[in-house]
Design goal:
The chain has 380 residues and is of the alpha/beta class. It contains 12 helices and 14 strands. It has 2 domains: 4-245, Type I PLP-dependent aspartate aminotransferase-like (Major domain) (Aspartate Aminotransferase, domain 2); 247-379, Aspartate Aminotransferase, domain 1, CATH 3.90.1150. The structure holds pyridoxal-5'-phosphate.
Length: 380
């Protein structure tokens, strides 16, 4: 699904000395590289504060701790996402409230959020799934109306833009009260191990969070709040610093692969190509970066998805099903309050989506081969 080695070979002349420098200086934790990366990412995103941490799951948890959410508070999030999102809500003894998503862009559905709001609701966690922002304008106005926090799970969409109706553009992860991201190796900006970060424009919240990531310390050995140990190590920061200047090109390479897939699949019966929902209609955005294609996900109708997966695998083509089981049906997160009628979309998507190989090193021959094997399976 990804080609991390091919990507590394392109940048090793920059990455290797950057890692070497950390080892020579022996500043492994909170060294200058971490600070440098933090500043560079703040500039790239146009956000006031980036707080690096150990991984994207911690980033979400710490964001919720920073907002002071309390046991029993209800947090609304999407039923169709990676489990990390709901896991940290449950771990903090907050009450996860899973809601349905849109059938076309797979992102959290505004009406479903609105229906799920109760007097106990304190926050909404939109996940910018597969590389494209949720309807942030709608979510922010709903949040304002009901006095809720918005925590963007930006693990899959770093570098994407969100375009407002009036044309204003902001980077994903800089719109809500706080956002989290992951630098897991296969993410759009990945390091060579685990890493993550929290973003916010709120000075007080940033201060609170900087203490939480470091054992709740604001002054050495004074623990004012219960914190965690969640740090981005300097070697990972060195890798990320070397890769950040390439992020836009990496995302462009993903968009270019997506355009080729789209051309190949757009008129095929039973296949729906990804829908761009912010600003760009039909086709792939070339200017606004509304979608950075963490995944390239097709929706099938009348085609046996699992047999297609098997067929592609037999032809040495890896492919993925993100996600095969809706969160509300997972043992850990099932809840008698849930009504199957409220999950019509996710219950269908889990059976009909397929994600094709998508990364920065895909070449035309590989894409042609993948397309031909999909087409031969469905006799198109
Ligand atoms: C990858 C991912 C995470 C978790 O990130 P880790 O760094 O693996 O902890 C959280 N949410 C979403 C949507 C993700 O894709």
């Amino acid at each position: 699904m990804v080609d991390l080695k091919g990507q590394y070979n392109q940048i090793k002349d920059v990455v290797n000395p950057s890692i070497q420098e950390v080892i020579e200086n022996a500043a492994f934790i909170n060294g200058p590289k971490v600070h440098e990366f933090q500043k560079n990412l703040e500039d790239y995103l146009g956000v006031k504060h980036v707080i690096p941490c150990a991984n994207g799951t911690d980033a979400l948890q710490i964001a919720m701790m920073g907002l002071g959410l309390k046991p029993g508070d209800e947090v609304i999030t999407a039923d169709f996402t990676f489990a990390a999102t709901v896991e940290v809500i449950a771990l903090l003894n907050l009450t996860p409230v899973l809601v349905d998503v849109n059938p076309d862009d797979f992102n959290i559905n505004i009406e479903a959020i609105e229906r799920a709001i109760t007097p106990k609701t304190k926050a909404i966690v939109p996940v910018h799934l597969f590389g494209q922002c949720a309807n942030m304008e709608g979510i922010m106005s709903l949040a304002k109306k009901h006095n809720l926090y918005v925590i963007e799970d930006n693990a899959q969409a770093i570098g994407a833009n969100y375009t407002y109706k009036n044309g204003k553009k902001l980077k994903s992860g800089t719109i809500g009260h706080v956002a989290s991201t992951s630098f897991f190796p296969s993410k759009n900006l990945g390091c060579y191990g685990d890493g993550g970060a929290i973003f916010t424009n709120d000075d007080d919240l940033a201060h609170t969070i900087r203490g939480i990531v470091n054992h709740g310390m604001y002054k050495r050995y004074h623990h004012d709040v219960v914190g965690v140990n969640s740090r981005l190590d300097s070697i990972q920061a060195a890798v990320l610093n070397a890769k950040l200047p390439h992020l836009d090109d990496y995302n462009k390479a993903r968009q270019s692969a997506a355009r080729k897939y789209n051309e190949a699949f757009k008129n095929i019966k039973g296949i729906t190509i990804p829908k761009l929902s912010n600003g760009c209609e039909n086709g792939i955005c070339e200017q606004c970066d509304c979608h950075v294609f963490h995944q390239y996900t097709l929706k099938l109708e009348g085609i046996d998805r699992d047999a297609l997966v098997a067929h592609l695998n037999e032809n040495d083509i890896p492919c993925g099903v993100y996600y095969p089981i809706p969160l509300h049906k997972q043992k850990a997160y099932a809840d008698s309050r849930y009504n199957e009628d409220h999950f019509k979309v996710t219950n269908t998507l889990v059976k009909t989506v397929i994600s094709l190989p998508m990364h920065t090193e895909l070449d035309d021959d590989q894409i042609d081969y993948i397309v031909s094997k999909v087409k031969s399976f469905i006799n198109a």
